[in-house]
Amino acid sequence: MESDRTKVHRAPHKQVDDPAVVRRILERAIIAHVAITIADQPYCLPVSCAPYGDELLMHGSVASRLFKALADGVPACVTITLIDGLVLARSSFESSMHYQSLMAFGRARLLSDEEKRHALQGLTDHLFPERRAELRNSTEQELKATAVVAFPLNEISIKVSHGQPDDTESDLDSNVWAGILPIVSSYGAPIPATNLRSGIPSPDYISRWPGNRL
Amino acid sequence: MESDRTKVHRAPHKQVDDPAVVRRILERAIIAHVAITIADQPYCLPVSCAPYGDELLMHGSVASRLFKALADGVPACVTITLIDGLVLARSSFESSMHYQSLMAFGRARLLSDEEKRHALQGLTDHLFPERRAELRNSTEQELKATAVVAFPLNEISIKVSHGQPDDTESDLDSNVWAGILPIVSSYGAPIPATNLRSGIPSPDYISRWPGNRL
Fold it and tell me: Is the overall model pTM greater than 0.90, yes or no?
């Protein structure tokens, strides 16, 4: 659904409308930034996120101002930005980044107590694949302390900037190197907790976790 | 300066007030998310950024709605989030992330034409260190097309979450591995532009660029 607020005014050629791209962004992202307005002051806060059916799942403390406002159904904007590289053009002006961004407008839906447990399991599976099987279930008290919201994705704007440096004609005979410098994020070696019981090796599944989550 | 909007209500032990931490975050970050409100609708947009004296520099097209609003001095919130790792606790509830975030409140200051050129050079130096010496100067037309704003950093909230998994006592005898999985971002091998003139090697300075920009 395109509205004035989802129409890309700048660089409209970067706007895409492909469900596969939306899915790819949602499956990769672990954090989103949420904008809400309280008493005319905008706030922008990072939250962890996961795909949840046709919605985006976010969770936080029931005591947080952000989640209280989201639970109240205030208008919000949720943006996911994935940075894929630097674009080294032959001028500063054309230098830029490779990125993918998803901006969603709407109001969050507070999940019921019944829906919460299942949704949070999905969040754990998204952030820590294969790990949930060895973790105990969340307690009722933990669930009560956690606000879980689903954000609609039916009013979204997607931009993908993965192109070549867009140098002006007159710069093309320059001696300056031009191209893309990919940025990749990956996991380092696991660091055991200082209070970890001895003899517990780091889990195999970590080696299977996909990189590039940022 | 602490106000109600910069006070950390959730996890106040994670709030820090150390200029060296602010500097470290600003020197590392290449993107920020900006929240503004237009007609009661919050917007959250990613922009590239760089430290600029005691302010944060951001630039965009003079034709962009975001930069028009910022130039008009609307109330804004600028948030930088750096993700440093996953915290694998012994329960889903205590599992979290290592991150550093800076949230700034205020109104942007539109730079004058005189100030712009110097400021944009600083942005290029921040994103592409050592590269500016080989790039031509920006033209007057390029400068005219670029809106450059400085955002104040005198009303900020900083959170640093770099601690151990905070498991509840009763989970400590669990057989589950617990610890930190660092997330590191780095540059991949440079990819020459398809229209790069032959015989131009990728620049040496790229190898000196600091990683972990996300």
Answer: yes
